[in-house]
Amino acid sequence: MRSHLGLRNLHIGSWRSAAVAVLALLIAVLVGAAAPVAAPPDDLDPLLRALSIRPWWGDPPAVPVAALDGRRQSLSELRGQVALLYFWATWCPICTGELPTEIETLHREFRDRGLVVWAISFREAPERVTAWLDRHPVSLRVMVDPDGIAATAFRATATPTFVLVDRHGQLVGRGAGPREWTGERGHALIRALLDGR
Q1: What CATH number belongs to 44-194?
Q2: CA separation for the pair 40, 37 (Å, rounded)
């Protein structure tokens, strides 16, 4: 009888050990999956702080956005380039002041070096955006997000909101409100991103 109990205890002990090992492995996988992606080099931090940009590292949301011609594009198509996603609206006075000036100028200055700007109008009809562009032409790519799906995915809750993505397709930072993109601090950050730092 005693040897039978010993085998039973050994069997239960082995089962418990296996269950604990499986649980530990599951926790390790889940924690590893939720672990943040390593931050870019430290030399970006002061450049982000200088423009009051909050660091946001990791993979961007995989949400396609429509161009005015209806063609859907994904951020993955921009890999190898630096992207500035600029969420705006035609009814936003800050946006309509900054987009055709600061953002357009930044785009023109750095597009040949690999900067892509997507001005994503959200929660507006494409016709309204087209009418605004007829009066305020820009050379950068204008996209529409009439249902706000991309805006929600990129946490754009205010206008304007911007998101920076590096050449490797990784998020770098985000912020809301206007910035001095054409000033020395804005240029320093964009140059650092274009240089791959």
Answers
A1: 3.40.30.10
A2: 9
